[in-house]
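Re: that chain you flagged

S.,

Sorry for the slow reply, it's been a week of failed gels. I finally had a moment to sit down with the sequence you sent. For the record, here it is as I used it:
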Amino acid sequence: MSKYTQDKNYIYYENTNIPKNKQNIHNLEVLEEKERELLLKGYNYFHKTLSESTIFDEKYFKELHTKTFIELYDFAGKYRNVNISKGYSNFCQVRFLEQASADIFNKLASENYLRNYTKKSREEFAQKISFYMCELIALHPFFEFNGRIIRLFFDMIATSNGYEYINYSDVLVIEDEDNKFIKASIDCMGGDGKKMFEIILNGLKKAI
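Prediction finished late last night. Pasting the structure tokens below so you have them in one place:
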């Protein structure tokens, strides 16, 4: 778990990269295992509740974060109220965050939340997903678990269009320097979504 740099409201235990949590877990390996369990439960819950009436709006996006991580974190489902950065990446400033989020989801709504891509090309669908994924990565609205929730969000959209979950097995690795998804995300921050498009395209497969 890599620690974000924040300008205030430090959410980590002092001198650690471990977020303060409801179970007061200080062992990083134990905490990360618990997070993986919760993420799996989140996938199961949202997959089971997915229907034709599901609306992939901002409320739903926040709900993914809330229901998945509320057992561990008070900040689950809440947009951050501080500026954050990681390495050389500075994410959306908090003073613009709410409006930027509204703009993204309004645009997504104008495209029917990508619910009409069942008969369109895989390339066109991948292009749309990669565009909005880059937008949300640059927004980085939550204190933690932005990448995981963004991937969960688009996995549900992919499923609603008759695809399997997007396969990231070749690009998500433990070591940050070898993580192709992180490299693609950094490019997104600079307005270049080519690598993310390639990742999404390679990971999209129609469900049988």
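What I noticed first: The longest strand covers residues 84-86.

Talk soon,
D.
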